[in-house]
Amino acid sequence: MTATEVDDDLWSAIGDPTRRRMLDLLLAAGGGTATSLSEQLPVTRQAVAKHLLVLDQVGLVRGTTAGRERRYQVDQAQLARAVAQLAAVGSSWDARLQRIKRIAEAIQRQRDA
Fold it and tell me: What is the largest CA-CA distance in the chain?
C-alpha cells in the first residue's frame, strides 16, 4: 500500500474523537500512559487502554514498558502516512468539485443563451 492509498483501519481508528484527543495529548506531552491520559479525558483508565490498543494495532502509537505501565508515543511515520492520505483524499475531492462546478457553469451558460 502506498502512502496515499486509503487505509480503512487507520481511518476507523482516527475517526473516534476520543482517540483523536488522545493523539493530541500524546503529541503535546511527548508521550504518556493510560493513567496519565485518563486523568485528562472523561473516560476510565480501562477505556483509555482499549483506545490505545486500537491505536497501537494500526501503528499510530508504540508502547514500551515503563515499570508497571506502558508508555505510549505517537509513531511519527504512521502519522505522516495518515496526513498524506488525508491530503490525497482532499485533492481528489477538490478535483471532483471543480469538475462539478465547470459542468454547472456550462449548464447555466446554455440556459442563459
Answer: 76
